[in-house]
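During the no-cost extension, the postdoctoral fellow (Dr. R.K.) reprocessed legacy sequence entries with the updated structure-token encoder. One reprocessed record is reproduced below for audit purposes.
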Amino acid sequence: MPPPETSSSSIVSGFVLQREDNLADEADVYIILSTLIGSLLIFAGGQSISYIDSLYFATGACTQAGLNPVDLNKLSIWQQVRNY
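Re-encoded structure tokens follow.
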């Protein structure tokens, strides 16, 4: 008995749907990792800032939310460049 025929459009659409799921997962991982790495860089940047504030800064920078728990002019140049 021959195998059932599948149209190329169903194969392609299945691939596209699977790829979109992978892209969403990759984007989530990218945002989480860049937030954690950025918070460590901001925390080690010079001015005394608590880690939770640097995590909040990094989250706001990665998601373009603009959340600032501390005035930007109180940060060192390195911390300001990292946020940019």
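The first helix runs from residue 8 to 43. The mean pLDDT is 76. The remaining legacy entries will be reprocessed before the final report is submitted.
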